[in-house]
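Chapter review: from sequence to fold.
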Amino acid sequence: MGKALSGKVIVVTGGSRGLGREMVLAFAEAGADVVIASRKLDACDALATSVREKFGRRALPVACNVGEWGQCEALTEAAYAEFGRVDVLVNNAGMSLLYPSLDQVTEAMFDKIIATNLKGPFRLSALIGARMAAAGGGSIINISSIEAVRPEPLAVPYAAAKAGLETLSGGLAQTYGPGVRVNTIRCGAFDTDIAKAWPPEMKEELGRHTVLGRIGAPADIVGAALFFASDASAYCTGATLALDGGIR
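The token string follows.
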């Protein structure tokens, strides 16, 4: 898309690694300035340096645990203080926790999963979406998971949170339209940092359950992210794009 995002300011949560990192680099290459948010400031700093050196774009690293509303507010204020506006918000930060059985999911575990995957995106979208609408427009992109519609036994709280995120997208689209567009990318299995903990045969097994015969590479997120962040999706809001290789 060349410089389709020239001059835009984009906030990416969970932006220092995995799919978030891929999106940050793609946005910067397309001409955007970026706010890189994650819990680990060192990782955000390192990526921000890469963005500046490789693409000559401005990059603001911010430590933020999106599960805490105070930190969501601090992230919002930091972005507006640095750039004066936000054109695109990508709610990418997400997490799940392993558990032996549902009855052994503690309240703290459940709350942490909901906070990161649903509570944080709600608060950030409310804060930034309202400012976007007042300023004349913008785009919010929520990164969901196939678990939202095909939940597995080992990810039930995560699946519920992602299902809530997809419902949130629809509500936000109604709330902040017509100026602000809100869309969802529903990801299947991707070969990111998380996949390093999988047994070797798991990638192949997951790949066999897709029409395309493989799990996603991190770069596979780029086309969808650029579409929703740019004017290419000017007539698209409240939509969910399945990015799962054609899961069977």
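Two observations follow directly from the output. The first strand starts at residue 9 and ends at 13. The longest helix spans residues 107-135.
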